[in-house]
């Protein structure tokens, strides 16, 4: 028997089998995502060919269609136009169409950015304040208050959407960036408080007490000593809040329309001639999912810890 | 510690209220107030699109209407079977993957990250691109199925027998990593000395699995299923974009029906009563589940 390794360690044969199964699962699970990315680089015809094309001639038609509005024109009209000024105009002309202007995609995308970053900042900031107070001070009814904060997450969004809709209409917050930032901040706040409290509990009290003996006030000690110490936790929490706001659909589709609509309700409405324009939808999806995928891979350690956090602490 | 009094600046009590205050106020304004408002509306015949008409108190009429409507029970059945199959599949596959990943082979961490990707994506956008994969003429899913087993032409979204499976498959694809991660955390929390003691007692690997691994991972698995259960009871975005509840009402989950009543027919009073009933159901089941879970944990 091989005595160099502990008998608790699985044998190298069983490790290989496990790795093989996991690799197969990972490949299968990534196929739908890769397929969407591939579709974004197809042209409209090759996206609807059967059997599905794995090898194809790459095209940027999807991306051009995503960013422009186009209209179909007669051949005579196209001939009467001056020659196309750039490659994307040429591409659109080859489909017997002309570009009539930019599409709404960029606006929807930047709405997602503004609302995502705004609400993430607000919920992490407010969450950090509350988490610190819960972690350090004797708060009356602390456990009840903490449970109350968590239970607000159980409401189905549609159940509160009508009252919020009416309330926002009265306050003039309907279909505004501010309204959506406030809403997403509140939805994320409960998670932020719970996650951050765990991180704050881990920071020794002695740090800020030492600072206060040196003449800092409680507030100064919080901002100059505790917050920098909690940076890892704040980063992890921020990613979660950002991913939620970025992906949220129900409130966005019910409460926004023209001004503050984010990308998730917009992407499904990208329609081409005779049905959905798959390369354009693929392009929108790819551009929309890309930041989240990059974030996930770069920040995997914090993320995986954050997901299992609640489970492990109990 | 009486020393604290000597520090400068605001007292701890003041700082405490200053720090917690904004959070509690926001939650009251955007979460609790709308909920109370919805409960109040559920006793009236209010229509949110008819401004200026005073809502009238109708007592329990909305609740009776909801509970007596046969269609509502159909939606509940659709929701229940969606929940049953997604939770079952995610429990089995998620636990299996966690057990395999726990063998700590090379490249383990990177593979975990790749497997986790689907659950980070926007459910609505996921729903849209799966309509492409499920397309009966050009879909990759249909092609792959036909490649392995010749079924001929079939339509996952258009057929009322297949559509419920279409949403189960997508939800399982998306959320199995969640169960997997929580189970993995559970497996890693089992102290090594338990296995060492078992080895000393000459317990077989199978016995170790049944008497050590499974009982320690079970509370984690149950917790993961609780979270997924609550989320899938509220499921809306992915299914709306994938099947929009159809064909007919084959995949019309409770919250999709709620959205139709509230935002298409604008029956605010009626839909509020329905929302309250859903909320009480989720809360009730959740509480019972947590009690059962704690009993299992104590054993």
Q: Could you please describe the fold and organization of this structure?
A:
- The complex is a heterodimer of chains A (314) and B (299).
- Chain A is mostly helical and 314 residues long.
- Chain A has a domain at 106-269: MetI-like (MetI-like fold), CATH 1.10.3720.10.
- In chain A, 70% of the residues lie in helices and 5% in strands.
- Chain A contains 16 helices and 4 strands.
- In chain A, the strands form 2 sheets. A two-stranded antiparallel sheet of chain A has the order 1-2. In chain A, strands 3-4 form a two-stranded antiparallel ribbon.
- In chain A, a hairpin with a 2-residue loop joins strand 3 (271-272) and strand 4 (275-276).
- In chain A, helix 12 (231-247) crosses helix 16.
- Chain B has one domain (63-298): MetI-like (MetI-like fold), CATH 1.10.3720.
- In chain B, helix 3 (70-101) packs across helix 7, helix 3 (70-101) runs antiparallel to helix 9 (205-233) and helix 7 crosses helix 9.
- The two termini of chain B are 41 Å apart.
- Chain B is mostly helical and 299 residues long.
Helix content of chain A: 55-70%
* CATH-derived topology of one domain in chain A: MetI-like fold
Identify the quaternary structure here.
heterodimer
CATH superfamily of chain B: MetI-like
Q: How big is the Rg of chain B?
A: 25 Å
> Any idea of the CATH topology of chain B?
MetI-like fold
The coarse overall form of chain A would be: globular
Number of helices of chain A: 16
According to CATH, what is the class of one domain in chain A? Answer: Mainly Alpha
Q: Could you describe the largest sheet of chain A, including whether it forms a barrel?
A: 2 strands, antiparallel
Low-confidence stretches of chain A: 1-5, 310-314
CATH superfamily of one domain in chain A: MetI-like
Biggest β-sheet description of chain B: none
Could you give a quick summary of the protein structure above?
The complex is a heterodimer of chains A (314) and B (299). With 314 residues, chain A is mainly α.
């Amino acid at each position: 028997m091989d005595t160099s390794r502990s008998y608790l360690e699985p044998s190298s044969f069983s490790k290989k089998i496990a790795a093989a199964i996991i690799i197969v699962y990972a490949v299968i699970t990534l196929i739908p995502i890769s397929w969407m990315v591939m579709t974004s680089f197809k042209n409209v015809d090759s996206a609807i060919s059967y059997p599905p094309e794995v090898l194809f001639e790459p095209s940027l038609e999807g991306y051009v269609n995503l960013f422009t509005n186009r209209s179909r024109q007669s051949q005579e009209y196209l001939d009467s136009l001056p020659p196309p000024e750039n490659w994307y105009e040429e591409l659109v002309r080859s489909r017997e169409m002309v570009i009539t202007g930019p599409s709404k995609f960029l606006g929807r995308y930047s709405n997602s950015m503004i609302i995502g970053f705004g609400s993430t900042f607000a919920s992490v900031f407010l969450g950090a304040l509350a988490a610190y107070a819960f972690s350090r001070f004797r708060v009356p009814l602390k456990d009840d208050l903490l449970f109350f904060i968590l239970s607000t997450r159980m409401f189905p969004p549609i159940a509160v959407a009508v009252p919020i809709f009416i309330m926002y209409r009265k306050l003039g917050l309907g279909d505004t960036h501010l309204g959506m930032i406030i809403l997403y901040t509140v939805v994320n706040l409960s998670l932020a408080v719970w996650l951050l409290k765990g991180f704050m509990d881990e920071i020794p009290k002695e740090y800020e007490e030492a600072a206060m003996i040196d003449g800092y006030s409680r507030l100064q000690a919080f901002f100059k000593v505790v917050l920098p110490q909690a940076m890892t936790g704040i980063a992890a929490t921020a990613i979660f809040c950002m991913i939620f706001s970025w992906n949220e659909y129900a409130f966005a589709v019910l409460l926004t329309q023209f001004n503050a609509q984010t990308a998730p309700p917009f992407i499904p409405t990208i329609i081409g001639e005779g049905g959905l324009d798959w390369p354009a939808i693929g392009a929108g999806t790819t551009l929309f999912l890309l930041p989240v995928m990059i974030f996930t891979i770069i920040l995997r350690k914090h993320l995986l810890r954050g997901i299992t956090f609640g489970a492990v602490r109990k | 510690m009486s020393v604290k009094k000597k520090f400068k600046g605001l007292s701890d009590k003041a700082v405490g209220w200053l720090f917690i205050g904004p959070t509690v106020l926001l939650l009251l304004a955007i979460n609790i107030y709308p909920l109370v408002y919805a409960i109040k509306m559920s006793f009236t015949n209010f229509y949110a699109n008819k401004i200026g008409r005073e809502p009238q108190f109708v007592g329990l009429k909305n609740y009776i209407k909801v509970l007596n409507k046969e269609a509502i029970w159909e939606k509940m059945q659709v929701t229940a079977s969606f929940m049953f199959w997604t939770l079952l599949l995610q429990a089995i596959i998620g636990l299996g993957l966690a057990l395999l990943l726990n063998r700590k082979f090379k490249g383990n961490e990177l593979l975990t990250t790749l497997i986790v990707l689907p659950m980070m994506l926007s459910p609505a956008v996921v729903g849209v691109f799966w309509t492409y994969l499920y397309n009966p003429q050009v879909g990759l899913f249909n092609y792959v199925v036909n490649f392995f087993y010749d079924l001929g032409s079939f339509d996952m979204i258009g057929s009322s027998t297949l559509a419920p499976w279409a949403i189960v498959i997508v939800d399982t694809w998306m959320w199995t990593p969640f169960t997997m991660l929580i189970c993995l955390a559970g497996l890693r929390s089992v102290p090594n000395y338990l296995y060492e003691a078992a080895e000393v007692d000459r317990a077989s690997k199978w016995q170790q699995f049944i008497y050590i691994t499974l009982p320690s991972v079970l509370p984690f698995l149950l917790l993961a299923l609780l979270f997924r259960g609550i989320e899938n009871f509220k499921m809306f975005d992915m299914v709306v974009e994938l099947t929009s509840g159809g064909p007919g009402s084959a995949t019309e989950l409770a919250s999709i029906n709620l959205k139709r009543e509230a935002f298409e027919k604008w029956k605010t009073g009626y839909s509020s009563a329905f929302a309250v009933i859903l909320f009480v159901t989720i809360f009730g089941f959740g509480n019972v589940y947590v009690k059962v879970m704690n009993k299992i944990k104590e054993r």
